[in-house]
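Title: Prediction job returns without error message
Component: structure pipeline
Severity: low
Priority: P3
Assignee: unassigned

Description:
Job completed but the reporter wants confirmation the result is attached to the right record. Sequence as submitted:
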Amino acid sequence: MRIAMLSPIAWRTPPRHYGPWERVVSLLTEGLVARGLDVTLFATADSETQAKLRSVCARGYEEDPSVDPKVVECLHISAVFEAAGEFDLIHNHFDFLPLSYSGLVSTPVLTTIHGFSSPKILPVYKKYDQRTFYVAISDADRSPELDYIATIHHGIDIEHFTFRPRAGEYLLFFGRIHHDKGTREAIEIAARAGRKLVLAGIIQDQDYFEREVRPHLDGKRFVYVGSVGPKERDELLGGAYALLHPINFDEPFGLSVVEAMACGTPVIAFKRGSMPEIIRDGENGFLVHSVAEAVQAVERVSAIDRLRCRQIVEKRFTVDRMVDDYLRVYEVVLEKSRRSGGPGRA
């Protein structure tokens, strides 16, 4: 089976620090190569992979301000589809734009929908709904207007996350500094719970950071450590008392939630989006509806078995499970395409 894996090019694949879509693409690509599949990864030239690598840009446009995003995205997507005849399947992780090329090739196209940035992009998915194939990353993120071939939760390489049986003292916020991620709410929860809060992640909204975060930073009780790489991520997640995830949107998934649990760290999250699919309330964390409930949950964290947090990840959220799921979907896509005599559904 010859697979063309289309990664985003905002960041390197895998990312040095931030880049959740690129991280998932990397894990899946390397897992498929380890299973003996012939995979060509379309990503930035500085990407690291055991697959064949094809690139149109040296570095991601979020890492190199000299790169024009629209230009390199155009070249990047066209490179895949101009080579479509070389592959049995194109696996798209680049959102909706590549779908507009799918009617021009006979190679089946599978798109993992990593979330909907806006309802305004739905018409593109609807147009190609019966010609291509869609995977949701959680049941919560499924649009009732689309036909999906599967829901596949993300998996992580648990070998990169060290289980720590003893809880640390600080609470942790790990994610984009943005209203959607609930950074301000995390600060309020920690303040009311009387615990130190460490914040890590890229600043996606500078005005929000200046208004809601910076005034609280004192280097002692509230500490911002920036966006961190894999080693620091493992240490921060594993050393925390709990991860705070008070999201203000219906999050399609939450890699940091799973990564924290892999280290044994329970998660306190607002009950929105995919969180009920990841967190079992009272078993590997708590699902809450407000800051007040989150503060109460902080007092109950010690009742959570950190080993159980790790075991749930080992059972449900490993990269091997994710690769198995995608291999099954690939076979179904190819079979449906053979029966229909083209790239679409039978």
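Comment from assignee: result matches the submitted record. The chain has a mean pLDDT of 96.
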